[in-house]
């Protein structure tokens, strides 16, 4: 395979039912950040794991990005009871991302996990999640504000402290940095084998990496994709991911 070709990055689809059709789709903010900033070609993978072998996809791509979503990881995956407060769910996406995360790490494929993807990464390592964290004593309200302008909803609103000597510090510097962390669910018990890379002022885990990973493996709770073309730290994350994908492509030839 010629190294002049841009890397391919697998992006798991969310499942949505609309006008009597079942759709498999991904928000274009992630796809544009991959194409414009990371310099890779995004490939949306349908959440249909019973219809094809995941290996057939991963044999052909150079990285995996797991996106945020309106849905949450099903509580059964981390030992909690389902509740309306945890909804909505997308079990087909859960099945897909669980396999993509496990196999990408096994192969040493670069992995960037954002928002829901960050939570999926924690669950994949045996960690748990907590929901409606804004209702806990001493916790901030991390939810998006109600506003018709997406730029206002995704504006950076608080700082995160960067763990010294970690993967994220090597990408964005010592920090702190301001982020647009939009969520009501967060990491509770950290998964075994994960390292905290950034934390909010209220202690919320905002970024993790995989200890001993064969390649780039980073999860962030905020949304660097939204401002990747204009915000320095956001751009740096996607640029570093893109470089890792090019390195993987070149090594596999």
UniProtKB/TrEMBL annotation:
Family matches, as SUPFAM superfamilies: Class I glutamine amidotransferase-like
Domain of life: Bacteria
Record field: catalytic activity: 4-(gamma-L-glutamylamino)butanoate + H2O = 4-aminobutanoate + L-glutamate
EC main group: hydrolase
Any one GO cellular component localisation term in the record: cytosol
Pathway field: Amine and polyamine degradation; putrescine degradation; 4-aminobutanoate from putrescine: step 4/4
Keyword Coiled coil: no
UniProt xrefs under PROSITE patterns: GATASE_TYPE_1
Single biological process term from Gene Ontology: polyamine catabolic process
Record function comment: Involved in the breakdown of putrescine via hydrolysis of the gamma-glutamyl linkage of gamma-glutamyl-gamma-aminobutyrate.
PANTHER family linked to this entry: GLUTAMINE AMIDOTRANSFERASE PB2B2.05-RELATED
Protein's name in the database: gamma-glutamyl-gamma-aminobutyrate hydrolase
Organism: Jiella pacifica
């Amino acid at each position: 395979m010629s190294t002049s070709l841009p890397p391919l990055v697998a992006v798991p689809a969310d499942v949505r039912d609309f006008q009597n059709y079942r759709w498999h789709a991904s928000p274009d903010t992630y796809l544009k950040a991959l194409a414009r900033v990371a310099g890779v070609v995004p490939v949306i993978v349908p959440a249909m794991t019973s219809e094809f072998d995941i290996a057939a996809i991963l044999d052909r791509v150079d990285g995996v990005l797991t996106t945020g979503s309106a849905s949450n990881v099903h509580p059964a995956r981390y030992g909690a009871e389902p509740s309306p407060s945890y909804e909505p769910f997308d079990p087909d996406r859960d099945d897909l991302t669980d396999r993509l995360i496990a196999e990408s790490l096994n192969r040493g494929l670069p992995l960037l996990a954002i928002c829901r993807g960050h939570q999926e990464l924690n669950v994949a390592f045996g960690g748990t999640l907590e929901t409606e964290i804004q209702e806990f004593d001493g916790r901030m309200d991390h939810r998006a504000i109600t506003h018709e302008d997406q730029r206002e909803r995704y504006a950076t609103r608080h700082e995160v402290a960067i763990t010294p000597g970690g993967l994220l510090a090597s990408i964005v510097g010592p920090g702190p940095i301001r982020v647009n962390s939009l969520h009501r669910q967060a990491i509770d018990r950290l998964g075994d084998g994960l390292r905290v890379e950034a934390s909010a002022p209220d202690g919320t885990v905002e970024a993790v990496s995989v200890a001993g990973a064969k390649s780039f493996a980073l999860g962030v709770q905020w949304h660097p994709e939204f401002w990747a073309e204009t915000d320095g730290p956001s751009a740096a994350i996607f640029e570093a991911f893109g470089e890792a994908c090019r390195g993987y492509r070149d090594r596999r030839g």
